[in-house]
Amino acid sequence: MFVLVEMVDTVRIPPWQFERKLNDSIAEELNKKLANKVVYNVGLCICLFDITKLEDAYVFPGDGASHTKVHFRYVVFHPFLDEILIGKIKGCSPEGVHVSLGFFDDILIPPESLQQPAKFDEAEQVWVWEYETEEGAHDLYMDTGEEIRFRVVDESFVDTSPTGPSSAEATSSSEELPKKEAPYTLVGSISEPGLGLLSWWTS
Fold it and tell me: Where is the segment annotated Disordered (predicted)?
């Protein structure tokens, strides 16, 4: 679920921080810049693990700050495909079951990846697994807040860095706000024995 990623960045330290230890200042600046941010094709950055190398620091004309090229390792949330995770149901919609890990919310289990047969209850706004037994079908509801075990089957990165207007048409239709896309999303599946709500398999 968590991996160590080697990164390189140039860190700017303002003059009023020169009295502090360089490593402390650099660690603070790196965490300010990266913590809780998604790096494209890398994952969700959590916190600095360690600094492996500091190159020479430079002060440029007109800027009293020091600029240091830093090699470091960062803890990143990036589960591998087929990894099994446990989260909580954040809500349900016709698109599927939305799951949260507490610190990461952009997880969707689409309808085709649920235990089958499944149906969406419009009145309750929940997905229901119609569990077949010898006595007939039992409706097992996927309620908000329930713990759920799922398998990661896909991931998607979207470059959300700002871009300028591409054409005159883009400026004329500026009243329509573009749909905000999540920079990093996971797709899960519970369509196999042992996956799904934890309460299904413990009772």
Answer: 158-179
